[in-house]
Design brief:
two-stranded antiparallel sheet, mainly alpha, about 5% strand
Amino acid sequence: MIHHERFPEPDIPVFRKQPSAKKTASQERKTAIEFYEIPDNLNKSFTYKVYKNDELAKQLNRVFMNKCAYCDCNYKAGTPDDIEHFRPKGAVNKFVGFVDQKESDKPGYYWLAADWDNLFISCPRCNRAEKYDTGLSSELWGKKDRFPVADETKRARKPEADLASEGALLINPCIDDPEYFFTYVVEGNVKEIGLVKPKDELNADEKKRAEASWIVYALNRPPLVSERNKCVTDLKRDISQLVTALWIFVKRNQIPGADIIYEKQNLDLAIERLKSAIEKTAPFLGVKRQMFRQALEWESVKELKQKLNVDLADFL
C-alpha cells in the first residue's frame, strides 16, 4: 500500500455541470438525496450508474497507475478492476471493535456515490469479502461495506454532515501515507517474509487505524503475502547483481586496452532491471522501498559508495 496523488476532478462528461444534463454526477447525487429523503426508501436500493462510466474508470486508473489502491497489486492482466467507494454507498458495516455487524445499516454514504474523491480502483479481493485459511483459522477479510469510524455517534448519515468529524479509521491512500503506518517483514523466517504489520512506534490512535486497514483491506491474505515474498527475493537478487556488475565493470575498465562492451551491457541490464522493479508503476512498492532502504546498509552497497562514489539511494 502506497500513497497516490489524486489530481482534481477531471473534465469529463459525467462531471460537467450543465443543469439540463442527464447521467451526470451532480444530477445523480440530487436524485439520490431526494430518493432517501422519503422515509420509506431508507431500506431500499438506489440504482447508481455514474461511477460505472468507462471514461471515469480510465481517469481513476491514471491516478492509481493501473494498480489496486489498497494492496498495490498489478491485477489488470488477469482480472477486471472494481471501482470502489471509500465510504460505501449502499450500506455500512460499522465494524465496531473489528467485529462485523449481523446486518449492515442502510443506506450508506449515498450522496458520495459519484464523488471524485470517494472513488478508487481496487482489485476484487480487496474490495469484496472472502474467507482465507491462515493455517490456524478461516477468516473473512476484505472491504465490502465495512467502514469503521473513531466516534460512532458522529458518523455522517446525511449530506450536510461533517465527514471529518466522524474520524474515519481506514487509511486513505490519497490523503495518508501508508508507508508511515506499516512495516514489512523482509528478513528472517522465509515463511513470514512479505507479511505487513503496524509500526511499533505508532501512537494508540495511529495503531488503531493501521490495524483496521490491515484487516479491512485484507493486506495479509496468503496469496498477497506470497507475492510480496517473491518481490523481496527478486529485489535482493537484482540489487546483488547490480553490485556485482558494477565491480566487474570498474575492475575491467582499469585494464589498459580492455574490451568492456560485454561488461557494459551486463551493467546496463542490471541497472534497467532494478529501475524497472522500483518505478512508480511497479506493484508492491511499499515492501520494495523498505527492502531497498535496508539494502543500503549492506556492506557491499556501502563499499560501493565509499570506493566508487556510487550511491544506490539515487535509484529511489
